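Hey,
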Amino acid sequence: MTRKHVGLVKKTWPELEGRELEKEISRLLAGVEITRTLKDLARLRVEASYHRCDVTDQHQVSRVLEQVVSRYGRIDGIIHGAGMIRDSFMELMSAPDFTDVMDVKLLGGWNLYRHSLPHGLRFIVGLSSVVAVTGNMGQVNYCAANRALAAFLRTLSPGKGRILSKALMLPPIEGAAWQTSRR
């Protein structure tokens, strides 16, 4: 985050301060990165699109996937990278802090799978975390959510009439910013 970014956001939304200002700048920078990536893919003659929705809401997922099918005719694959961070020690964690993080990964994966399957789905990849295997202090919800996603995807392994699936256990990625709450 640079002074330039802060200045531009403050000019547009002068009421934003502190964490809210940081969140807005992160959101805008993510949009820039998405746009760059889509342009890079287009230069390589790869047709790709980015869609945003609350993956825990099956109706939003269904609507977005219908838009994809309307544009492309089918859905070959899903890359599920949605995530949320609500770090806290387990003794201090609220039930919503646990379930919200779980829902984004596991229910989100289920909704994406279920609503894309009738449209030709051939593969689904879940962006998970190495903490699903190693654990991390203050992240019991995040560890459990990523482990549950990996287990779910493993049940979809190749076989008669099944799709290809894989959970990628990724290390921390510089610049990746998960939401701390739903908007």
